[in-house]
């Protein structure tokens, strides 16, 4: 088998962000760009020889080409076997499940998640380790360091393309390539966790739901699980065919980009439940008739109701949330008498806690919820978990949520995103807040007293690793919080995220508009970072 050693020179910008390396497709299409990064991953895995790798992506533009290149590089780098999804498709949670099921050494996921796709949009690549989870910071930083010194990569030449359309085994050089059904293993895993009979009774009854796959990866998974296995009426899953450009839309399940679904639930159609997922299938948005469930609340409701799901009947060992996620789940943990943890943004920080058995559920405010069944957040899992609670309680989403608030207090929450800022402006806005940190504590702001203001740092309780600069947080004496972060998933410029939260125990004040309840904190946030003076902005581009 001819293996070519191709000389190359480093690119300076291959540092993985919150979730892998994300760039414009045109950046990845530069000669050697993808190859350099893939070789940097392989170079930091010296024990890969003869091992199994899982490979797939969300089907976005450039997925197929990238997969053919990676297969030939994997063969040249001594991998023993690659399992690749048919047509190059695999959702992020499905990759995680396959790594665990096959005791693979790791997996490569090709996706830029909720970012738009197409020749002028985004592509991404992420490496997951043998527990099925995103590579921890130690590995991603090693990949980046390697990418800055790389001077050659290996690739087999003179072999035909692997036919990704046909299930079964073939060879790429000496390496075995197995094209597998992308859905089957994942669907079996879901059947092992949930009571499919109970879910089926719900979905075959008068209950009406819609799942919007936004022309991204969850279409085939949702068709199989919701419609074929559970018997929901045909048409329950909409936009179910994955398209390379997601039909020209953002595959981002929020009120702005999944507007069609939100309108259907919030303004009138006869639907009891609505859900959507993102490009790579790890996010979820939950809606009930006339109501949107804030992701932080969703995590809390699932934690409170977990024991009605067979896999979690014994209860949860603990829960975790990312720092900007609201404290609603903490309130549930306190009530259940189980530990709760606070981690930096990004799923990689949950891996150690899950592996150690310290937590069973975890989630993020950014429409991410998951459990110890895999090491990624999992959109369809969250949908099935919600359906399980609805079936067990015989109540609607709104009733469950308002009851939850009565029992645990309501954590009013909103995130404001200021997208497409010049990179320097993003840095200036963060610096404006950072400069004030030393003097904020004890001040009275927005009618509350600042209890603590800091630049969030995290020490992993399992391996002791430290992560610095994970966002600015301002904590108030009444439990309110104001948090500032720059996004680590964008591909150009900067996005400032400001997160606002205030807990309200008084049942009489739990049915108000979050934007109104939080208006003082919203105003304070803009003032502290000198938003208008530094960026000219007065309003966010996305509110969730
Ligand atoms: C965003 C979210 C974060 C999430 C990450 C990856 O990161 O805020 O909570 O883990 O996306 O999600 P950032 O750095 O842009 O805030 V996914 O579904 O895009 O892989
Ligand atoms: Co995603």
UniProtKB/TrEMBL annotation:
Residues 14-152, 185-287, 296-406 form the Alpha-D-phosphohexomutase alpha/beta/alpha domain. Gene3D superfamilies: Alpha-D-Glucose-1,6-Bisphosphate, subunit A, domain 3 (3.40.120.10), Alpha-D-phosphohexomutase, C-terminal domain (3.30.310.50). The keyword Phosphoprotein applies. This is phosphoglucomutase (alpha-D-glucose-1,6-bisphosphate-dependent). It catalyses: alpha-D-glucose 1-phosphate = alpha-D-glucose 6-phosphate. Its cofactor is Mg(2+). It holds the Pfam family PGM_PMM_II. Belongs to the phosphohexose mutase family. Keywords: Isomerase, Magnesium, Metal-binding, Phosphoprotein. One of its GO terms (biological process) is carbohydrate metabolic process. It is an enzyme of class 5 (isomerase). GO terms for cellular component: cytosol. One of its GO terms (molecular function) is phosphoglucomutase activity. It comes from the Bacteria. The keyword Lipid biosynthesis does not apply. Its EC number is 5.4.2.2. PROSITE patterns: PGM_PMM (PS00710). InterPro entries: A-D-PHexomutase_a/b/a-I, A-D-PHexomutase_a/b/a-I/II/III, A-D-PHexomutase_a/b/a-II, A-D-PHexomutase_a/b/a-III, A-D-PHexomutase_C_sf, A-D-PHexomutase_CS, Alpha-D-phosphohexomutase_SF, PGM.
């Amino acid at each position: 088998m001819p293996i070519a050693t191709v000389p190359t020179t480093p690119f300076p910008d291959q540092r993985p962000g919150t979730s892998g390396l994300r760039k414009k497709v045109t950046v990845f299409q530069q000669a050697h760009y993808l190859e350099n990064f893939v070789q940097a991953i392989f170079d930091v895995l010296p024990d890969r020889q003869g091992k199994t790798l899982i490979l797939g992506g969300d089907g976005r533009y450039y997925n197929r080409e990238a997969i053919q290149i990676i297969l030939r590089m994997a063969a040249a780098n001594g991998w023993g076997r690659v399992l690749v999804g048919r047509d190059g498709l695999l959702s992020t949670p499905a990759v995680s499940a396959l790594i665990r099921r096959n005791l693979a050494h790791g997996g490569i996921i090709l996706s830029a998640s909720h970012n738009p796709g197409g020749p002028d949009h985004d592509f991404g690549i992420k490496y997951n380790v043998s527990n099925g989870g995103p590579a921890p910071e130690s590995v991603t930083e090693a990949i980046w360091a390697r990418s800055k010194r790389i001077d050659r990569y290996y690739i087999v030449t003179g072999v035909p393309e692997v036919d990704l359309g046909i299930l079964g085994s073939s060879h790429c050089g000496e390496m075995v390539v197995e094209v597998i059904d992308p859905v089957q293993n994942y669907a079996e895993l879901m059947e092992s966790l949930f009571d499919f009979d109970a879910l089926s009774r719900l979905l075959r009854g008068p209950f009406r739901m819609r799942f919007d796959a936004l022309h991204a990866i969850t279409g085939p998974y949702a068709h199989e699980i919701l419609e074929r296995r559970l018997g929901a009426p045909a048409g329950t899953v909409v936009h179910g065919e994955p398209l390379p450009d997601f039909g020209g839309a953002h595959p981002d399940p929020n009120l702005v980009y999944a507007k069609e679904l939100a309108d259907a639930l919030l303004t009138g159609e006869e639907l009891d439940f609505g859900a959507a997922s993102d490009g790579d299938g790890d996010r979820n948005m939950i809606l009930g008739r006339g109501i949107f469930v804030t992701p932080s609340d969703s995590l809390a409701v699932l934690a409170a109701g977990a024991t009605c799901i067979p896999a979690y009947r014994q209860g949860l060992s603990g829960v975790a949330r990312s720092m900007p996620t609201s404290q609603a789940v903490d309130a549930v943990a306190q009530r259940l008498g189980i530990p709760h943890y606070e981690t930096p943004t990004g799923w990689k920080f949950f891996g150690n806690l899950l592996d150690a058995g310290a937590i069973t559920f975890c989630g993020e405010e950014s429409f991410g919820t998951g459990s110890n069944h895999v090491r990624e957040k999992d959109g369809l899992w969250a949908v099935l978990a919600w359906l399980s609670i609805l079936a067990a309680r015989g109540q609607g989403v709104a009733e469950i949520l308002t009851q939850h608030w009565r029992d645990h207090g309501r954590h009013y929450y909103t995130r404001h995103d200021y997208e497409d800022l010049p990179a320097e402006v993003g840095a200036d806005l963060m610096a404006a807040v950072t400069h004030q940190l030393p003097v904020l504590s004890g001040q009275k702001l927005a009618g509350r007293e600042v209890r603590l203001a800091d630049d969030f740092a995290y020490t992993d309780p399992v391996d002791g690793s430290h992560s610095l600069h994970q966002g600015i947080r301002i904590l108030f004496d009444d439990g309110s919080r104001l948090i500032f972060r720059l996004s680590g998933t964008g591909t150009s410029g900067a996005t400032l995220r400001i997160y606002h939260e205030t807990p309200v125990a008084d049942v009489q004040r739990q049915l108000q508009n979050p934007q109104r309840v939080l208006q003082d904190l919203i105003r304070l946030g803009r003032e502290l970072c000198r938003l208008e003076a530094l960026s000219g902005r007065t309003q966010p581009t996305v509110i969730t």
